[in-house]
């Protein structure tokens, strides 16, 4: 007599990753939506130090003036005459933003004043000069 053995079907021992992937995807969407991106001026500046410097937490429009009298905003070099239009464009994207001028300690003071003037002509009321705390 032949004995037939019926082998039990192999059990699925793998882990179902679908719920975990769903959670990760939802977390990714959450972090993308809630992230605020910091816009840099475009160059590294040696800021002067000031005892009364205060850190500002809100998102701002950064204008950088290098020691070679180059003006940078939003990662690109611009002429001082183009600065007003660029600030207006960035201000329309973020109406609550202030303009912070980051002038190198060796930059010309006249160019700093012109940049601040262009920001005010663009309709920005809050214009500040960046400095480091010693």
From TrEMBL:
GO terms for biological process: protein transport. One of its GO terms (cellular component) is plasma membrane. It is a single-pass membrane protein; Single-pass type II membrane protein. The chain crosses the membrane at residues 20-38. Its main location: membrane. Keywords: Cell membrane, Membrane, Protein transport, Transmembrane, Transmembrane helix, Transport. It is found in: Cell membrane. InterPro entries: ExbD. GO terms for molecular function: transmembrane transporter activity. Belongs to the ExbD/TolR family. This is Outer membrane transport energization protein ExbD. It comes from Sinimarinibacterium flocculans. The lineage of its organism: Bacteria, Pseudomonadati, Pseudomonadota, Gammaproteobacteria, Nevskiales.
């Amino acid at each position: 007599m032949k004995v037939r053995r019926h082998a039990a079907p192999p059990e699925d021992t793998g882990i179902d990753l679908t719920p975990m992937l769903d959670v990760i995807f939802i977390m990714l969407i959450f972090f993308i939506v809630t992230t605020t991106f910091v816009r840099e001026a475009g160059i590294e500046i040696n800021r002067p130090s000031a005892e009364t410097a205060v850190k500002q937490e809100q998102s701002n429009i950064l204008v950088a003036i290098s020691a070679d009298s180059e003006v940078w905003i939003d990662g690109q070099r611009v002429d001082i005459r183009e600065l007003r239009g660029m600030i207006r464009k960035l201000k329309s994207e973020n109406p609550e933003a202030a303009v912070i001028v980051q002038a190198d300690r060796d930059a010309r003071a006249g160019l700093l004043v012109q940049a601040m003037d262009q920001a005010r002509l663009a309709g920005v009321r809050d214009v500040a000069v960046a400095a480091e705390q010693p």
